[in-house]
Amino acid sequence: MTSSHPYASKPWLAAYPPDVPAEIGEVTQTLPGMLMQSVKTHRRKTALEFFGASVTYRDLWHEIELAAEGLRRRGVGKGDRVAIVLPNCPQHVVAYYAVLRLGAIVVEHNPIYTARELRHQFEDHGAQHAIVWDKVHDTVSDFPADVRPRVIVSVDITAGMPLAKRLALRLPVPKAREARAKLTARPSARRVLTWKTLTGGRRLRRSVPGPGLDDVALLQYTSGTTGTPKGAMLTHRNLRANAMQGEAWVPGLRKGAETFYAVLPLFHAYGMTLCLTFAMSIGAKLVLFPAFDVGLVADAARKSPPTFLPAVPPIYDQLSRAATQGRLDLSSVRFAISGAMSLPVSTVKRWEDASGGLLVEGYGMTETSPVALGNPMGPTRRPGTVGVPFPSTGIRIVDPEDSARDLPAGEPGELLVRGPQVFGGYWQRPEETQEVLLADGWLRTGDIATVSPDGFVTIVDRLKELIITGGFNVSPTEVEQTLESHPDVSAAAVVAVPRGEGGEAVAAAVVLREGAEVDLDGLRDFCRAHLADYKVPRRIVVMDDLPRSLIGKVLRREVRQRITGK
Predict the structure, then answer these.
(1) In CATH, what number is assigned to the domain containing residue 193?
(2) Which pLDDT belongs to residue 552?
(3) First CA to last CA across the chain, in angstroms?
(4) So what's the pLDDT on residue 501?
């Protein structure tokens, strides 16, 4: 079956630009080895820029070695998990590679998660070391003793800013105080291990062994294909291969001369690969933003105009409007790649009118490191599709009820993917791994797709019940459990409803306990206390009962119809 399926001949290769190979070469570098090659080649070039402050590749590697030694002296060794809970900042990049240099495993976390959300992940991975934003230090240090990491490093991200900006944040005026409060906070504990202390010693000895290609580099939490958050194990080989595929996919890249804008969070699989690995692999300048803000982007563009911008549709829309209003010049952007959610054709037109460059859509998931397909960077791109498979990547379209039965072109079925970027499984979840990884290496994506005879893929539906809002995955089960923990709610069903041009919003139907009256705004506030803001239902409707099947399963499609009226 693996060699005779309809797409074994890879008809999409005809759409590849002339310089894009059908296969990538052998993966020979771990991620620290990859970065070290860039350091040797681009020593004096800028690696990172943060609010105007810059760090060269040579200095970046020096800081990585200092951080690695600080972690080693505090017990981090090969195979240990180290949690990183940081927004985009120079310390995030340094911490990421310092952990990997020791052969340890990075575990990325969203720093705006609530205490409950973070605790769930810490309970799962059991990391004994954590490098955290000072604004969430108290949250992590307040975990129960059996969950709390033994070593917690507190990071003041403003230390990576230019001196003048740091001084401006200390001015005794409301605007400065407000800006400072967004970026930093003083932990309440008396004795705190700071990033400055961690990195204030000696450099790591070269003799300290590093990782192997098939060692796990990263645990990336995802709702996966089943809706339950779990850690996807991504190896150095997986991540390096995806960076190589990305480089092969973009003809005309200028090594050591591109400027990437990290407007996507580095803790997200998409931002991690495009910025933390791909950008570093080609010696690019990586301009870091702690959160997306049009004003910050406009300020940065005056000093370092972007040439490569990975983002999601809402960001492209906002930047396009700013450019149309004359607040931002986008003409320097040579490559723009959208992912994580559906890209409306109208967004493509707005962007290309405003920038004069191409905007293409790709497809991936955390389990594929994350990019598996993309539209060609040229005239053969096809807006409205997610493109064709990357080099060294194969696809099949199968019957969702029988993965051994391949379907013909044009017939919707479950998309399967196979390639060097496909993950090794879920952390400590062999049964769930077995559900999505078939014996011959094919990954069940849980997405329903159609494929044209020449290999262009269109995603039409999802088997999984995940909601994708603003590029982030939301597990309906998690939101339902939160709603049902409210004393006035007896049952809840959470679904995606359309929002704007191709986007999704979280919506919920609730059944109240007998005699209860609930304020819907108050119910949203209750959710906000337990969930990240993007998970909070934007619409909540009250029903007498939830529609269910004969065996009692909630019929989400009917819930969605009742909420939307369609």
Answers:
(1) 3.40.50.980
(2) 63
(3) 40
(4) 66
